[in-house]
Amino acid sequence: MNKGKLFIFSAPSGSGKSTIVQWLMQEHPELRLYFSISCTSRAPRGTEQNGVEYFFLTPEEFREKIANNEFLEYEEVYQDRFYGTLKAQVERQLEAGQNVVFDVDVKGGINIKRFYGERALSIFIQPPSVEELRRRLVGRGTDTPEAIENRLAKAEYELTFAPQFDHIVVNDDLEQAKLEVLRLVNDFAG
Known about the structure:
Blueprint: E1 6-10, H1 17-27, E2 33-35, E3 38-40, E4 54-56, H2 59-67, E5 71-78, E6 81-86, H3 87-95, E7 99-103, H4 106-116, E8 120-126, H5 130-140, H6 145-159, E9 167-170, H7 174-189
Parallel strand pairs: 1-7, 1-8, 2-7, 3-4, 8-9
Antiparallel strand pairs: 3-6, 5-6
Helix pairs in contact: 1-7, 5-6
């Protein structure tokens, strides 16, 4: 069986990345795309199961794995609230022939690409403009004006990292962006 490939997707919040990745995974099963299963130190929510949505670790277990250099990337979002991707888990998925998808923040995406090099394809989903991003975030109706301003400031910072990705797909037309991502993934998957 062929080893899987790695696909890294990053974008500022509101760029449409999750919409594009979900479409790719649901509408194109022939690509054998599977999310990398991350670790978190938060408690399971609702029907989440260990080893399905996440691997649930205590903050102490998480710190131990950090000390042992077991993560491709990780972040402490709040005190004792960690998220990260284990190298061994990704290798297990690749060995099983899965094409592993990472839906990660910009810095995580750059770190994973640095680790895997040519074995990974990194795609940055970019909004057409910061103003369009503002319109989308306001349109969602899920954030306060202050939260939107914080997201926009973060987005402007994240946009500066776009050139470090293999490809930049500008999502000014969702259907076109989906097709462009599909073409890039198909070409890389071989």
